Amino acid sequence: SSHFGSSPQPTQPGSTRWPPLGLIIASAMATGARVLPKASRDKLERERGLGLATKTIASKSDIIEKEAGELAQAGNLKGALAKYFECQAEGGNVAHKIKNLSSFLPYEYLLPKAGGRR
What we know:
mainly alpha; 5 helices
């Protein structure tokens, strides 16, 4: 009988040519996160280190974005949104944050009040 893809069949009931499926899955899961060799990882870390040393000055949009994040964590969603819009006007890439934060506005009354007002 001909098979499509013609996978090899074991010749005797006790002899299998391939490892059991469980072993294949276990080894695939063990190597699921592919890791570079140590030398390559070290080289990448050195290159990253050089790149980070050159960019230490935060842009105005970075500072505004940090302020907006702090406002959002304090529960001041409207203030945070205003800061994110200001950050976007400065060239910050925060459209996704504006969208996510806006989705919480209907539930703002459930959040603890910002600051000392209770």
